[in-house]
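Async update (no meeting this week)

Hi team, since we skipped the sync, here's where things stand on the single-chain job. The sequence we agreed to prioritize is pasted below, unchanged from the tracker. I ran it this morning and attached the output directly underneath so nobody has to dig for it. Comments welcome in thread, and please keep replies under the output.
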Amino acid sequence: MFGIVVVVFAVILLFSVVKIVPQGREFTVERFGKYTKTLSPGISLLTPFVERIGRRMNMMEQVLDVPQQEVITKDNAMVKVDAIVFIQVMNASAAAYRVEDLHYAITQLCSTNLRTVIGSMELDEVLFQRDSINSRLLTVIDAATEPWGVKVNRIEIKDLTPPVDITNAMARQMKAERERRAVITEADGEKQAAIARAEGAKQSAILEAEGRREAAFRDAEAREREAEAEAKATAMVSQAIAAGDVNAINYFVAQKYVEAFAELARSPQQRTVIVPAEMSGLVGTLAGVSELVGLARDQQTRTPPTAPQAPRTAAPRTPLTPPTRPAGGGSVPRT
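Output:
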């Protein structure tokens, strides 16, 4: 029996002397009820029957939930608000011996300061300035918990519920704002579309004007070329007439005759077109025109003579007699 008592006593003595502190914790040591030191994580030895473990403090960051409460704002609006607090014990002895219940004290401190901060703000500021509320609460509570050896890392407003009537008014306000933005966006779209259409019409008008200018330039150039060709033809015919060639005169007479006959045929007032029965004069005129063209071609290809020669006289030809109308007054219908 004595041996068993000794073994039991030895085991009790061993457990009271050897202490193992886990990571993230710190233990305070009391000697006859007075705080003497703090044990860090690891193994430590205590004086038997003299020293004992006082408080086991959690040194890791902790999260405290602040209960929901009703707060009256500066403009007499009732809101429900709650929060969460992130704390960390930095001094184990101060947290253990300077406050009775650390978690309860911090929770109550947050509740009272939450009412103070929100009560000094209007409802719109409370709803849209949560960051400002968090910063003010963090500054006040961290300064208040510093003597307790606690560091307040963050405070966040978790939920903020305004009254039902204010919530409905906010919903209507949001709907009106959305409708206003939609109208503005639609008006901007119509404005951009009108600008695009006007720009397109402007570019179209510019291109059309450039097309008309180019067409006018081309028409003027064509008329100029035609006038140059007519002038050259007239000069050639004038030279032929000056040389005594009767075929040139026949050419002009035949040309005017054909033009007059064409105008007579195109006249909308005529139902029938009178064709002369004697066509020999017209045939002779055409033969003279072809001979005139041949002579002009020969003059262009012939080299100029070295000695002056006698002027060449054309054989007399019978002048073109004006066409006579047949005795029977023959006519053909106009087609």
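Quick observations from my side:
The helical segments are 2-17, 92-97, 102-119, 123-128, 130-145, 164-242, 246-266, 280-301.
The first helix runs from residue 2 to 17.
Reply here if anything looks off.
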